[in-house]
Amino acid sequence: MTLGVPESDREARRQVGALPFRRTSHGGFEILLVTSRESRRWVIPKGWPMKGRKPYEAAAREAYEEAGLVGQVGKRPLGFYLYEKRLKSRDFVLCQVKVFPLEVRKQLKHWPEQHEREGRWFSPSEAAEAVAEAGLSGIIRSVTKRELHFAK
Fold it and tell me: Residue 81: which of 10, 16, 144 has the closest Cα?
């Protein structure tokens, strides 16, 4: 409940996000998280839908803008989670983020928000612990190599 309104009674604004991952030499995988600009908490690259782009394409674009990532994005979401976004007005808005897998092929040397955020590779269990949103943590905990592979 926030501001006296239960989450179930508030309309969530839609966002899209990418869960960037790379395979490791020992057969596992790692997940890249970035810091949010304001609170500096660990999050996935995400943002508002983009006119003229499919949701998974917009998610891949956010991964490029926020972390310089290029790769293959899955067309089917892994799931979604809710969080409260603080707006410039200092108000909060409830957002529902649809999460798409992104298999990272490379990280560019330069990208639009590189001086505004930090990025770091985590093991899946470390990533699940590092994020504040319980729903995102649950998505990270539920993904397996098999799911990430077949989500394309």
Answer: 16
* Region of residue 20 (phi > 0: left; psi between -120 and 50: alpha; otherwise: beta): beta
For residue 121, what are the domain limits? 7-150
In a domain, 2, yes or no: no
In the chain, how many domains are there? 1
Q: Which residues of 4-38 are buried (b: 16+ CB within 10 A; e: fewer)?
A: eeeeeebeeeebbbbbbbbeeeeeebbbbbbbbee
Per-residue pLDDT reduced to its tens digit, 57-102? 999 999 999 999 999 999 999 999 999 887 778 788 899 999 999 9
The verdict on residue 1 lying in a domain is no
Q: Taking the model in full, what pTM does it have?
A: 0.87
